[in-house]
Amino acid sequence: MAAPLVLVVLAAVTVRAALFRSSLAAFIAERVEVASPLSAWKRVVEGLALLDLGVSPYSGAIFHETPLIIYLFHFLIEYAEVVFMVTDVLTAVALYLAIQDFNKVVFKKQKLLIELDKYAPDVAELIQTPMEMHYIPLKVALFYLLNPYSVMSCVAKSTSAINNSVIAFFILATIKGSAFLSAVFLALATYQSLYPLTLFAPALLYLLQRQFIPVKLKSKSFWLYTMQYASLYLCSLVVIICLSFFLLNSWDFIPSVYGFILSVPDLTPNIGLFWYFFAEMFEHFSLFFICVFQINVFFYTIPLAIKLKEHPVFFMFVQIAIISIFKSYPTVGDVALYMAFLPVWSHLYRFLRNIFILSCVLIFCSFLFPVLWHLWIYAGSANSNFYYAITLTFNVGQILLISDYFYAFLRREYYLTHGLHLTRQDGTEAMLVLK
Amino acid sequence: VCTSRFWFNYRHVANTLSVYRSVKRLGIPDSHIVLMLADDMACNPRNPKPATVFSHKNMELNVYGDDVEVDYRSYEVTVENFLRVLTGRIPPSTPRSKRLLSDDRSNILIYMTGHGGNGFLKFQDSEEITNVELADAFEQMWQKRRYNELLFIIDTCQGASMYERFYSPNIMALASSQVGEDSLSHQPDLGIGVHLMDRYTFYVLEFLEEIHPASQTNMNDLFQVCPKSLCVSTPGHRTDLFQRDPQNVLITDFFGSVRKVEITEETVALDRDLAAFESKFPEDELATEPLKYAEQLPVAQIIHQKPKQKDWHPPGGFILGLWALIIMVFFKTYGIKHMKHVF
């Protein structure tokens, strides 16, 4: 399986290199969909230039990257293009290895449940076979590398690629079962952008499953393991933050990075939902609505954890998608990450209800973003409402996609245990509905 | 300012022109008058006597003389232009005749007529100015020191409401009717076919015809003009913001341009002040040779300066800490046995 992967990697690198050398690179680099105030390359360069002039890069409201990024790019700024290509490749390889392992886990679990007779007799067609699962890791790597969204992020040198790679490594570490590494990478991901905090729950659930510790609130071993994992995570987070202090000898980076993410002062349009709302909000209410919007990101963790207790990797997928839809400064690079997972659940295709219309919505909106931006900013014949409409439609499309997959997943699980032909009490055919 | 258009509002134009005529007669030149007429009555196709605007029936007094200079005419009479004239916030291309070039020693007379209501005055049938806007405009004028004293006369229905909100000092206001009352017109002329003047301004005009530049008539007499028997509405006035006693305020302070001239027969020497001024600032004894341009800046020093290399390096402690952590993580994951390969 290594050879096709290498081929895919080479193809991806070629596409990116070709785009770097073309005139499109400058155009893509300034698109707001790709470069948000948190991830724009221009701002990284600005911050490093400020540092060379002897001023703290956090002193203006331009630079919102963490000190570790400063350290990374201080030495690698001339090779920036190569760095971003390597990052993308690393992400893809990490996802490939992770999904390979995950497939083995899925298959083992399936076998166990079949032997225990937990499945209904007529669900033979729903069970995943190794044949069809063989190419899934390659497809995942392919989906990530050749996704136009991630190609554009790479060409724009947006640091969301680095976010993605840290999360990919976190997923790899979790699936391999190493609690320590998973905690370290999760701490790095949280340190980088605040929202991967919510990935703590699926990682914990997965590791518990691997250790065969049942998730019961009264069980002592559950709490013990949770405490261990949580303490590993928190300690590494604290260590990384303290280490960042020593880079510039100041705590400036905390309000500049985390304060910025949480309080959303910069209302540059992007593909998210925050900017329009807060552009027209009265000062009086803005604190309240910031809290509401931020809680919205973290809110779905607990209910999803309760429902998807047995399926932590799917939970992780849904959680990553929720982060990239509801975070304060989303870019298409974040969207590319969860889209890379879609081949893993290709067996749910028969249960997806709206996939055609949703893919059309997402593709059309992606094409309409630059059109309406041009109409608004350059031609002057549209206004921000037009661009926001497309943003809204895009996000609604994404949300519907996720909920569609969620529904399909749960439906398949239900069919597996209750049989494909559901009947109501009086014998007529029944239909599963997600309430 | 006349704010109404259409032929049947002839009387408002006649009102404004009468006051214009009086102030011109009493000495104020056109350069100091801003006349705003919303419609042209003298040359209106319905005017049976073109080029005239009469103030009295039987065509006794033509207030549209030979030398009327209208500054804002027809559609230029808008609330915005009026407020801009008052506050001076005018685009730079405006000619002088359209500006109110007053300073803090100027006494200003503002006469407005038209159709009004409780708290507003209608401009041209399409917009209104409220008493609050007017009060704020006057406050702007006060803060910009655009007037010394201001006399505001308004002849509309419920005119007293327009001066209710004034809060700037040195304003005296007169109105033709109280809130809830209508100002009525004087008399129609059957030859022209419309009412020629409003009652209040008619009697004010009669009163002003008696004034000449040297008269000592004061404001209290103006307040008595047009009692209820003649005017049907009750004229009102407001003097609480005015610092001087109205008794001591001459009509000609506002309506005329009367200069105080003192004739003296003694000579005044101007030279002695100049000598005193010069003795304070002796000749500069320091510089004897003029400096050459090139020596004033140490250019040679500047251009040969090497730029300071202020490159930032991450502190050593940070690098050490970071790599130590990375190595620790690596060994924790993969086991200590790899250590011997490193060393």
UniProtKB/TrEMBL annotation, chain A:
It comes from the Eukaryota. It is a multi-pass membrane protein. Its main location: endoplasmic reticulum. Pathway: Glycolipid biosynthesis; glycosylphosphatidylinositol-anchor biosynthesis. The keyword GTP-binding does not apply. Keywords: Endoplasmic reticulum, GPI-anchor biosynthesis, Membrane, Signal, Transmembrane, Transmembrane helix. Residues 1-17 form the signal peptide. One of its GO terms (cellular component) is GPI-anchor transamidase complex. The keyword NADP does not apply. One of its GO terms (biological process) is attachment of GPI anchor to protein. This is PIGU protein. It comes from Mionectes macconnelli.
UniProtKB/TrEMBL annotation, chain B:
One of its GO terms (cellular component) is GPI-anchor transamidase complex. One of its GO terms (molecular function) is GPI-anchor transamidase activity. Pathway: Glycolipid biosynthesis; glycosylphosphatidylinositol-anchor biosynthesis. The chain crosses the membrane at residues 312-331. Keywords: GPI-anchor biosynthesis, Membrane, Signal, Transmembrane, Transmembrane helix. InterPro entries: GPI_transamidase, Peptidase_C13. GO terms for biological process: attachment of GPI anchor to protein; GPI anchor biosynthetic process; proteolysis. The keyword Transmembrane applies. The active site is at H115, C157. Signal peptide: none annotated. Belongs to the peptidase C13 family. Heteropentamer. Part of the GPI-anchor transamidase complex, consisting of PIGK, PIGT, PIGS, PIGU and GAA1. Interacts with GPAA1. Interacts with PIGT; this interaction, via a disulfide link, stabilizes the expression of GAA1 and PIGK and links them to PIGS. This is GPI-anchor transamidase. It comes from Mionectes macconnelli. The gene is Pigk.
